[in-house]
Each structure stands twice: as C-alpha cells, then as structure tokens.
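Collaboration report, partner site 2.

Our partner group contributed sequences for two proteins of shared interest, and the home lab folded both. The records are reproduced in the order in which they were received, starting with the first partner submission.
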Amino acid sequence: PAPAAPAAKPRGATAPPEQANVKPVNFLPNPYETVRNFGPLPNGRKWGSVSAIDVDPDGKSIWAADRCGSNSCAGSTVDPIIKLDANGNILKTFGAGQILWPHGMDVDKQGNVWVVDSRVATPDEIKKFPNAANLGNSVMKFSPDGKLLLTLGTPGKTGNPPEAFNEPNDVLVAPDGSIFVSESHTAQFLDKAEGPSAVGRISKFSPDGKFIKSWGAWGYGPSEFRGPHSIAIDSRGRLFVADRGNRRIQIFDQEGKLLDTWYQFSRISGIYIDKNDTLYAIDSESDDNYNPGWRKGLRVGSAKTGEVWFFVPEHVSKQASGMGGYGSMGEGVAADAQGNVYAGEVGPIQGVTKFVLRLKR
C-alpha cells in the first residue's frame, strides 16, 4: 500500500527560523500556589472567558472584563467590567450593553479603565441582537465609576486608525498619557499565502486620543507581527509586544524603533511588567503543533536582562486551552504589589486564577 500522507501542518504554525534555536524553558522553580476560581460572582452568575485583566493603582484591587458568562456579550444585560478586592469580593461592576468582546485592558495611574472591544458582531449575533451591530473594534476609556470618557475607533466598523480598527488586541497607557493599541487578533492563524493582506501593527495616540502614527505589518521579520496579542512597558519606557503568532517578544521605543527580540518567554498571550521590572509572560497555547517542545504556563523573569526565573505549569483540564495539547493556562496576566499573579482564563477553564507568591526570589 502507498505510504500514509504526512499530517497537515495547522494553519499559522510556522515561526521565524531563529526561534528553533531557543531551548524550551519548561523546568524552573515554582514559588506560587495556584488558586482556581478566584472571585466568585453573586446571584449564581458564572464567569465566562476573561482575557482582559489588570491591577488598580492601589496595588491590590483587580479589574477584569468578563465576556458575560460566555464568550460574547451580544444580547447580554450583565456588566462585563468587574472590580475585585484582594480577597475576591466584588467592589464595582459596569459596562452592560457597551462591549461585545472584551479582550485587552489597561488601568492608568488615575484609575481610568481602558478596555479593548476586539471584534465586530457576527451575522448571527446581529440577527438575534441588532444592537450588537454598533459594538466592537474599538477602545473605550471609562472613569473608575464607569462613565465612558473616550472612544478610539468607530464601534461596529472595520478599518484603519484613526477612524477605525481591525480586531484590536490590547491597549497600553504610558506614564506620559500616550496611548498604544495593537492589531490584529486573527492574524496569527494565517499562512504566508494569506498573511500579506492581513494587519499587524501598533498605533500611537496622544493622551486626548489624537492619532500620531502606526508601525508594523503582517509577517515574520523584524517589526512585523502575526497577532501582537499584548503590550507592556518597562521602567525605561520600552514597549514589550507579545507577538504571539511569531512566538516572541519584540521590544520597541515609543516611536516604533525596534530595540530587541526575545524568544525565551515562549509563545505568550499576555505580558505584564511591574514597577520593579519583573516580567510576567503567560502562555495559553503552546503545544506540539504551535510551539514544539514548549509547555503552556506562566514564565516570570526580568525585563532588564531577559533572564527567566520561574515557571508555573499549566492546569490539568479535560479540554486543553488554545488549539490543543495538554492542560490549560490563562491569556491575560497582571501582578499586584505583593507579587501575587492573576490570570484571566479563556476556554475550558474560565474566570480568574490567582497565583499566590509563597517564596520570594
């Protein structure tokens, strides 16, 4: 009989060749205790998918944006934006009817909550819930009490900044108030034949929302992206972009000049850098197809040197997160002033996980 055909490579599985030379970082000390189901919701409400998560300026309260108990807020009347205290008690909720698919979040130094609404409604969602046509592909700034203060992009439309976005992933507000937005979400799944028509970019806006510039394109090369899924900033003002489809972090100055590229933190969905330049990188997708040899998990290290110190392995789950493989790990990540880490879970394990720091480095 003829030999069996080789298994087809999943779409989007290719990565830059230099990544293949990086030894997987899977076995390091784990100083954290994993606490699942942080912050139970009242009145029988269940958590849905959570990729948007951040820490309040008080250093202890946690903000999360839940996809309304499911994986979409279309037609929902619940508040997707939730503030929790350090013990998981609800302090505040808001945002009902204003967000379709919360994906990224940043809480600025004034306590304003910036949320990325990452996609427009599907035809089925619009058919069932016509108002959903006016949501998505935008970045919204809310006051700490939930008042909508500013919207970037045109909700419900797809396009280019400043008028519109194409599947924005994350938002970051720099210390001087400059705003950075990354696009686009599904670009990581495209191959070389499909990708050139896709979007991969970072856009910069002034503190009052005026468009300044964009940089980047879809691709595998320097300053190119295949799904810039998350953004963080270090004490030097450098922007760290989790280029998830390319399994790397690209580091830029705030004008878009590429400064460095790191592969040692894996194929990460979320990135967070605290005031001490500790870098938290969470990997929800690695498996033998999408990042051979690497395990899903949380890697913690230094934004100054690039050294990886700790590895927290994936949760056991009946269904794996991401595109398959083993176990689950969150997409969004943030850390409080005590060094405890919070992960927003997407997929078979939803809600929020807390990693309690038991031993300090």
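Second partner submission, folded after the first:
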Amino acid sequence: MKRVVVIGAGPAGSAAAMSLTKFFNIEVILLDKATFPRRKVCGSGLSPWTLQLLDDMGVGSMIRKEVYPIKAGIIGGSGGVVELRSNYEAAVLSRSRFDTVLAHEAARRGAKLTEGVRVQELVRENGRLRGIKTNQGDMEADTVIVCNGGTSKLDPVERPGTTLRALMGWYEGVEGISDAVELYFDPMVKPYYGWVFPESKNLVNIGICYDPAMGNLNAQQRFEAFIEGRLAQRIKYASRIDYLMGHPIAITHKPTALVQPGTLIAGEAGNLVDPATAEGIHTALASGIIAGNFLGSILEQGIEPSLEQLSPYTQLIRSNIGFRFRASHAFLQVAKTPILDLALRFGSFQPIKQVLTWALAGA
C-alpha cells in the first residue's frame, strides 16, 4: 500500500484527499497545523462555478444547507454603483465552517485526518522523497501533496506573480444588508477591491484586498479609508466581532513549478489564486481534485512518482484552470484603467450589465 500525505486540510487538501480515497491500495493521511474550526482571512464567497464543483464532489447539497444564499451583486467605483441580478446561484459560508465541513467529509470517506500537526520539512534522499518531519516526529511517505497555503515554506520555488495583502473583520448590525455581495473598486485599493459579504442576516465580513506596492497607505489606513468612504453611515451602530485579521495572498497569471520529486503542489501553496479577485476557493478545489485524481491514477498503476512521471500535472492545471487566470489577468488590466468606472457609469444599459454580471459571477 502506498502512503500519500496531504499537507493542509483547507479546500485544496480536503479535495485532494477526497479524490485519493477513490483509488485502491492508497493510504491517505490528511494533516493540518490548526485544529478545526479555525478562522481564515477570506470573503468566504462561493461563486456559481464553485458551487458546481462542490456538486461534482458530492458535497454540494451538504454545503447548501448551511450557506447564506446570494441572489445579487453590487459593484461600485468612482463611476457609480450598479446592482446586478441574474439566475446565477452563489452563496457565502464562513471559511471556518466551510473548511471544517470539507475536512470532516474527507475523513468520513477514508482519509486519516490529524489536526495540530505542523510539517517542518520534506525529507528527500538521492532525489527521492522519503517522508516528512513534523512537530510530532518523522513520518514516512511515498508522495505528498502540498496544500498548506500561501505562506508555505515547504516548496521554496520562485514563481512569477505578485503578493497582495488582505485585511478584514466581522461585524454585527451593519445596515442595508440584503441578499447581495458588495464589491467596491475604490481608489485606496484599486485595481483590487473592498468587500461586504453577508454570512447571515446579522453578521457580515468586511475587508479589503490590495497591492501594497501601489500607494503609501498601510493596511489599517486603507481599511479605515474604505470604511469611511463607503460604509460610515451603515456601520455607525454596528459592532465589530474580535480584531481585524490580515493575510498575504500570492497570485499568478501562469501556474508554474507545481511538481517536485514525489510532490505535487495545489491551491495557494502554488500561487493558484485568481489574479484579479484574489479568490482562491474555486482554484483550490479544482487543483486539489486534479492533484488527487492524477496522483491516484499513477500510484494505482504501480508507477513510480518520479519527477518525470509527475511533470504532466502542471500542464493539467494550466489546461483546466489556466483560461480563468488569463481572463482574470485581462480583467485586472481593464480595472487599472478608467474603463471599469465608465462601465459603471453606464451600468443601466443591458449589454454593460451582462458583462458585469459575467465578471462578478466568475469572482
């Protein structure tokens, strides 16, 4: 029996583990340094494409029982604010709950979920993977799938891209909350955005995502400017739950270097995050599924997981999700210009609404 260690039990790791459990003679070990539930800096939005992917994984109905359904999107900028409604299905579910449900489902399907284990190093000998070192001792492994997020130190490879910053908090009692998610491309964060995502009728997460290389404001200053400019009246009688949380987000428009000997990289650990929206849930799930299915098929056939045998994985990722990255990269270039504000100014016209709806649904 071959042992696969999946490092990180977020969406990418849980999806990879679920996929691996379908194959014979594979022991799946799913490790996470945290103990579930744990918080994650994320808008927690589930796009139509994400919900479809969850359906394909057989967990869609389970997730839908707990989500806050989204029926509309609001996009704002210097050109105005446009509300978009369509037949697209979207939702919000806090990452603490979303990740817990997926990790526990992976365990129910046969993966051995172990929490509170921090992987410190991948052990290789003569170019072959031998195992891992953790804070609880060494562990043998035939292969690993690295899914432990954008701050991972297990795969120190330079990839083309940018590191963004996010800062967010949870609030109760914000006025004007409905069945819509809100995205605002304001000057202090543009070409990225600030968001207001309802997790329930009374609880919302509010945050910003920005490129620290653009402008002189720090995260706290940008967040306060966003609140003051967009939400001052709506938040006047609201209360913040706990403290603000920040997190780096590594993005790329071209998936690169996702394979090492005996090792595949998925999700944020491989910078697989939408370059325009910094949304990583869909790409985490998609890359985890691809990694699990690809590796499972190789091991089930008794093929040695050498660098040569694993190398097609990077191209599989590019073929399956690369087009979204390219489209998002193009949208990002548009967002840097006055075109987006111009589109918002004429957002009442149906062709403009259709384009904006497609862009928002993808996010």
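Feedback sent to the partner group on the second submission included the following. The first strand starts at residue 2 and ends at 7. The chain has a mean pLDDT of 91.
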